[in-house]
Amino acid sequence: xxxxxxxxxxxxxxxxxxxxxAQAKEIKDKVTQNRGGIPxxxxxxxxxxxxxxRIIEDYCPQSANYRYKAIFQRIRRGRYKLxxxxxxxxxxxxx
Length: 95
Description:
The chain has one domain. Helix content is 38%, strand content 13%. It contains three helices and three strands; from the N terminus they run αβααββ. Strands 1-3-2 form a three-stranded antiparallel beta sheet. Helix 1 crosses helix 2. The chain is globular.
């Protein structure tokens, strides 16, 4: 089981495995599956899943929480897709 912090690459990989577009719940489930479960340092399942959601929103320009380069596009409530040309990307906050 991967017990470190959730990385953006894990979310991108999960979305790629889901065909590039999926419901947030499906993305969270796939990240959890790829990790082999929820790491112990997360107090609850909810906390783990909310962390994934926050990261998605950090990289989604349709979100009020958008802070970094656009990687995800919200298609409609709770549904996201990978934007084209997401690589290479950096972690610098947007201006």
